[in-house]
Specification:
- The chain is an alpha+beta fold.
- 47% of the residues lie in helices and 20% in strands.
- The protein has helices at residues 10-14, 36-39, 108-111, 118-121, 138-156, 162-184, 195-214, 221-227, 232-243, 247-265, 270-276, 282-293, 297-302, and strands at 6-8, 23-25, 29-35, 47-49, 51-59, 61-66, 69-74, 77-81, 86-92, 100-107, 133-135.
- The protein has a six-stranded antiparallel β-sheet with strand order 2-3-10-5-8-11. Strands 1-4-9-6-7 form a five-stranded mixed β-sheet.
- Helix 7 packs across helix 9 and helix 8 (221-227) crosses helix 9 (232-243).
């Protein structure tokens, strides 16, 4: 192993399955039906996907690691991930030739053009970060299937404005998915009717994006507060209000995840990991890692 993880965009992602004829809009939007045996073996190794990914399981049973936490995906389950998540297929629980997915990949740039009401869509539903898989049945299953089919039909068509039409469809999809996750978390930390709640959620999203981009080199609250034009104290208050977790806790969790990923999926030395994560020395890193995991880096690597 020479690279502990790789960051992929849609263009690179599609090289995993060059023979698949998916429906697409350049390197911004891609929909395809895939089988594990032929096309998804590349995901046996961890990758950080720089976009939004939805995987709808048609048949089979696999375990997927998202940020080193394992989730089971089987027929009619839907998994969604956000930019920066580290993804890996960790276990195959059924005949590999009978594992089929519909995969939908969208770039961050494409999503930025989608119009929707943030207050209605994100009514404090930050639990999505910790619960990215939802089993579908009945009417919800039918609706999601029809959306996926309509998406593929639009992208494969000769309609002149299919890009714009698909944007509107994706906006509708977001409301459907938001509703599904809200139904699993009836208690909302934020009030969607409160404009202040919308600001809190917006700041939280911006903070998580910054932490995703900078956690390997920056752990100071002052850095993130300055990026968001807020005081460290006020930023901490907003993050706690939005998620129930402190801002330093979020930063540390990303750093621990990165360290775990390097220890498990690379053969680089602990000294090099200390350097890559910008710790002052190995002693500081050992103390940090053990305080968060209960294990030394060496113990975790060998576990």
């Amino acid at each position: 192993m020479t690279e502990y993880t790789q960051t992929m965009d849609i263009k690179k992602f599609k090289t995993y399955f060059p023979s698949v004829k998916g429906a697409e809009i350049g390197d911004d939007f891609f929909v395809a039906e895939l089988t594990y045996g032929e096309q998804l073996k590349g995901l046996n190794y961890p990758c950080r996907f720089d976009g939004y990914l939805a995987i709808f399981c048609l048949e089979g049973d696999v375990d997927v690691d998202i940020n080193l936490k394992t989730y089971n995906i089987k027929a009619t389950a839907l998994m969604c991930t956000v930019p920066g998540n580290i993804i890996r297929i960790s276990a195959v629980n059924s005949d590999i030739m009978k594992i089929r997915f519909i995969l939908v990949a969208l770039s961050k740039e494409y999503i930025s053009r989608v119009h929707f009401d943030m207050a209605k869509l994100f009514s404090g539903n930050v639990n999505f970060l910790d619960d990215p898989v939802i089993p579908l049945s009945g009417e919800n299953l039918r609706i999601c299937r029809e959306y996926l089919e309509l998406c593929a039909d639009l992208l494969s068509s000769e309609i002149a404005l299919k890009g714009e039409a698909t944007l509107s469809l994706i906006s509708s999809v977001f409301y459907v998915l938001g509703s599904l996750w809200q139904n699993r978390a009836p208690h909302s930390r934020l009030d969607p009717a409160d404009n202040n709640s919308l600001r809190v959620k917006t700041v939280f999203d911006q903070f998580i994006k910054l932490v995703t981009d900078y956690h390997t080199s920056e752990r100071r609250m002052a850095f993130y507060a300055e990026k968001l034009c807020l005081s460290p104290k006020y930023l901490s208050k907003l993050i706690k209000e939005a998620s129930g977790r402190s801002a330093p806790d979020w930063i540390d969790s990303f750093v621990v995840l990165e360290a775990k990923n390097m220890l498990k999926y690379s053969d680089i030395s602990i000294k090099e990991i200390v350097y890559k994560l910008h710790f002052a020395n190995q002693s500081v890193f050992y103390k940090f890692f053990k305080s968060h995991t209960g294990m030394t880096p060496s113990e975790y690597r060998n576990s």
